[in-house]
Amino acid sequence: MKWKEYSILTEGICVEAVSGIFHKMGSGGVVIEDPQAARRYENLEKFNPDSVSPDFMEHDFVVVKAYFPEDKKIQDELEQFLKKVEDNFKVKCKIFIGEVRDEDWEESWKKYYHTFKVGHRLVIKPSWEEYSAQDSEVVIDIDPGMAFGTGIHASTRFCLKFVDEYIKGGETIVDAGCGSGILSIAAAKLGARHILAMDIDEVAVRIAKENVHLNGLDGIIEVAAGDIIEELAGREIDHMLANITAEVVNHLIPEAAKVLPPGGYMFCSGIVDSRWPGVQKQLTDYGFAIDKVLTDVDWVGVAARKL
């Protein structure tokens, strides 16, 4: 199968807005190439210069990428949305369109994506690698395919760390915008009783189901496509995972406040630091206490407890 790769060259100030546009149009996640952020990591031991193109580090612009099936026509609608972004932020947005085949995507992941550990217990292992768990380690087999959620990006790592720290066993959880299913799988392997994992992207739903089956968790994790806000009505849950964007998180907070019990947690990520004050205010206004905040370059993750 072929995919259209839509790349938007712009400035960092509107990354959240462009990411939100792609989300609204049905993309399960975006790739953000930010050379300014990469330059901050350049001298760190964990930085791998082979993971970016040679000229990438010299750029000042940011690239936001999203992938859509070849037969899905979005260019006209995308251009209309981007015109509003340009007017609101006083920036320029350039669109570049390429093609990606499933096999090219898969080979790219196999080249750069390797087993790594997050938090105290979680080990994220690509399905094509071998790994023997040590002591209390919990191994998650994952094949990201075309879905967002590998554990590499800061936003996913934040939520994985929250899952590692806060999930004690027996919980009922909703994973809003589940992407590859990585967060749901982590929660289930740490003892959660039942998880509803939802995404608006049909590709993400398919891949999440495959990953759930790969980890033998079909009886614990229910994966579905649809609007999570509609599905929340009347549910009884213990915690919510929301690794999406600040805009969507803000829409979810009022609904989460209705269904979460006192002491229940909302774990939010995918928040650009410039949008964090607004998310923080929304959480506070709807009766949440900020328990923990994680930051990495321009990204913020939060564990918020319902009072």
TrEMBL record:
EC numbers, comma separated: 2.1.1.-
Gene: prmA
Superkingdom to which the source organism belongs: Bacteria
Keyword Ribosomal protein: yes
GO cellular component, one term: cytoplasm
GO biological process, one term: methylation
Binding locations of S-adenosyl-L-methionine: 156, 177, 199, 243
GO molecular function, one term: protein-lysine N-methyltransferase activity
Location(s), subcellular: Cytoplasm
InterPro entries on file: Ribosomal_L11_MeTrfase_PrmA, Ribosomal_PrmA_MeTrfase, SAM-dependent_MTases_sf
Protein name: Ribosomal protein L11 methyltransferase
